[in-house]
Q: What sequence folds into this?
């Protein structure tokens, strides 16, 4: 499920960056949070 959320955020981030420049900041913040969660899970050893 985490991978699904991460992929959706990446897609939204790209769309926000290209088409909706105003919403790009919020989507970028959400993407950074998703990446931090993925890294934390990998470091914690739980896997995805």
A:
């Amino acid at each position: 499920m985490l991978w699904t959320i991460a992929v959706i955020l990446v897609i939204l981030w790209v769309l926000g960056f290209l088409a909706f420049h105003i919403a790009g900041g919020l989507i970028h913040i959400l993407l950074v949070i998703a990446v931090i969660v993925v890294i934390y899970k990998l470091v914690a050893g739980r896997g995805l």
The longest helix spans residues 24-44. The chain has a mean pLDDT of 76. The two ends are 9 Å apart (CA to CA).
